[in-house]
Design a protein that fits this description.
Number of helices: 15
Shape: elongated
Radius of gyration: 25 Å
Oligomer: single chain
Strand content: 15-25%
Helix content: 25-40%
Number of strands: 19
Structural class: alpha/beta
Largest sheet: 8 strands, mixed
Length: 437
Amino acid sequence: MSMEQINAARAEITATSAYKTITEFFDADSFCEIDAFVKSGEGFAEAVAGYGTVEGLPVYAFAQNSDISGGALSKAQTAKLKKLYALALKTGAPVVGFYDSVGGRLAQGTELLAGAGEVLKYASKISGAVPQVSVVTGTCLGTNALAAASADFVIMTEDAQLSLDVTGKDADAQTNAKKGTASFIAKDSSDAVAKARELMTYLPSNNLNPAPQSDSAEPDGENTNCIVSKLVDAGSKLRIADDCGDNARIRLARLGGQVVGVVRTTGGRLDCKSANKAAKFVRFCDAFSLPVVTFVDCEGFECLKAASKLTSAYAEATTAKISVVVGKAVGSAYIALAGTGANADVVYALPEAVISPVNIEAAAFIMAPDEMKVPVPEQKAAAEKFAQEKLGAFNAAQNGYVDGIVELYELRAALLSALEMLSGKRVPTVAKKHSTI
């Protein structure tokens, strides 16, 4: 083949939307393409793949090319993706996939199914070893959706579709966000690329390397009621999966320049979606040794199975774990999020915190029945008064259930000190394949 023909082929590929997306994602002039001229039938393979840097950090990425046969999954495309996954595992760098495909080349039959299975196998193989992010900017249905949804984080544009159902039922971004499949919703492709680039700056390259450090910045949350914003570095809070579950918020943030995972329960009983979302996030943080800081204000769980998953996630995690009781920590919620079940390394409480074995009113009736002999409308206030006097932070500290009582203005310094102390944490684990909870 002449150089003129090679240049013509290169020009054809670089003119596609997928090539433009992937070069927009990487730092300028850093993208190196893999298997650029691989053919699928008469045309080029339906995905662009390669490696480069994002904010100077090494990353592997592929983009399904809807301009070539609709980006249809094929034997050639799956071979290209397998090579990318294998290189990412060898070199220890994250994988970002941009999904936009009409489906698969059905004429390839079982060869297509075998190739799709191999991609899923490689995605599972690297899970927990290097971070994976899926960015769905178009259609992603059927077996293609299996691979996309297996990533640690999923970004969808508002008009994207993601579903196992090839008819597109319940495939919209909002439905996926409510289910917890989509971690972020972007306005369009450019916004999705920007969100993916931002996310890369919070993630370690692999499970053996630390997350990227940055200069410490004082919090900028003086004018907000959110305790997390009052404590973390200014401009460092990355909101994740806010549309899934009403009683827990998960964030990636920085404390003193160090990336941490933040779980904040927001009062009441933790619903199933919130508990499952938090459990998955804690497992991700543990896989990549990101410290977990948990702010506890929770009166229990709505779902036993979800409660057991969250308790197991905390108990099994060997990464640094700091819990702060900022409101109520009642019964199973205290055990799962801040007590022995959570296996927390350090537990703080704000002065107004309450730690109770059962709900506040029940505890008051059992432990102080005479004080509850008041008219029914006044019982709630009487129970709250009893809780502050007998189940407060000082009582918990006296009994060794919290390590310290910290005023809000002191809490950032306390967290930074604890993170520094826990930086060398090492925990031997039982010889087993994995837990089954």
